[in-house]
Inverse folding.
């Protein structure tokens, strides 16, 4: 994925980092090369800088590193002076995406920052629009397509042209969701976990790479390209200023979610999952799987937020027990079972440790006079 920059500098020198994993499908490079075909330019120099050979381009199973993809993407954008890489009816000159980031500063929170990004985006192209909506605690970023992406004319595509058009459309929609997700994470300095990501095309042969690009469940043949996330992220304060933006634009790496190890809403997300699924097994492995994290990452993120899974489980159990004791007439034994205790004595000991009172004493004190 390319860096969002607004200043011209010499193209980066290709250096493979030790241990760099080749996981990016060559199909993305071939989709990018269609922009050269459209503009009648030669990609030879860019491919040479990215160390991508003709044999690799012909091999549908070939994989490259993220660094190689970055070099080729940025090199193509610079050479063609089009950050849209031929997707739209007109070019997005080099620096356009960086300008959109700058136009979103300052904003009081993520919701305002995204709406500004999307509103300003409409000034640079009308081939697609970006939309933000929120309902039932879920926020959704969706892409509305207004004309065929990658098609230089409104004429229907046939044969090889149709195949090329599908490849450009896939790469465009994939890239745009990455841009927006990466910008959102950067703006609030937090990993934003996704509840669901959808693409409006069949699963491609290289579909296995998609979970590496988006931290959430992936679906294909959706009505439109979109991703959803917990709407509470929208209220997080925008933590960046122009100085931070300038620093970000100087980085060799692109806007990527991987650099944001900390999820500032993870504690709230864990607590919500525990409360909404009181009958489930809440061991670390199960909770981590539900949140699309590894068990190690779950413990590390919670530690960064000064919490533990056991403490959150106790907090949710306590709150549910208090609610049942105060708002129902269930016997204490049934309350114990409802909050996950197999025995009333163990529940009573735990409840007294949480509140300083036994369940019966707490119920008597809380009862209306």
């Amino acid at each position: 994925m390319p860096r969002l920059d607004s200043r011209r500098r010499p193209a980066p020198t290709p250096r493979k980092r030790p241990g760099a994993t080749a996981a990016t499908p060559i199909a993305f490079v071939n989709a990018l090369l269609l922009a050269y075909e459209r503009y009648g330019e030669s990609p030879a120099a860019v491919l040479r800088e990215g160390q991508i050979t003709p044999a690799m381009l012909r091999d549908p199973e070939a994989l490259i590193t993220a660094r190689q993809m970055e070099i080729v993407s940025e090199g193509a954008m610079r050479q063609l002076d089009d950050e849209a890489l031929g997707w739209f009816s007109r070019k997005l000159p080099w620096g356009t995406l960086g300008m959109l980031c700058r136009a979103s500063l300052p904003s009081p929170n993520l919701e305002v920052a995204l709406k500004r990004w999307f509103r300003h985006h409409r000034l640079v192209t009308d081939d697609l629009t970006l939309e933000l909506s929120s309902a039932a605690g879920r926020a959704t970023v969706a892409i509305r397509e207004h004309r065929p992406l990658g098609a230089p004319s409104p004429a229907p595509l046939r044969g090889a042209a149709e195949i090329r058009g599908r490849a450009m459309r896939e790469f465009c929609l994939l890239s745009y969701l990455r841009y927006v997700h990466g910008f959102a994470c950067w703006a609030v300095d937090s990993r934003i976990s996704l509840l669901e990501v959808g693409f409006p095309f069949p699963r491609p042969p290289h579909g296995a790479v998609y979970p590496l690009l988006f931290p959430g469940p992936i679906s294909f043949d959706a009505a439109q390209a979109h991703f959803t996330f917990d709407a509470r992220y929208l209220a997080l304060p925008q933590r960046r200023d122009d100085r931070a933006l300038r620093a970000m634009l100087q980085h060799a790496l692109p806007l990527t979610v991987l650099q944001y190890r900390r999820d500032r809403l993870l504690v709230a997300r864990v607590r919500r999952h525990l409360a909404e699924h009181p009958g489930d097994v809440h061991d670390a492995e199960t909770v981590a799987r539900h949140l699309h994290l590894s068990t190690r990452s779950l413990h590390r993120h919670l530690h960064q937020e000064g919490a533990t899974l056991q403490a959150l489980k106790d907090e949710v159990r306590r709150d549910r027990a208090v609610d049942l004791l105060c708002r129902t007439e269930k016997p204490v034994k049934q309350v114990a079972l409802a909050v996950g205790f197999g025995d009333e004595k163990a529940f009573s000991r735990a409840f007294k440790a949480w509140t300083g009172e036994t369940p019966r004493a707490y119920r008597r004190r809380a009862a209306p006079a």
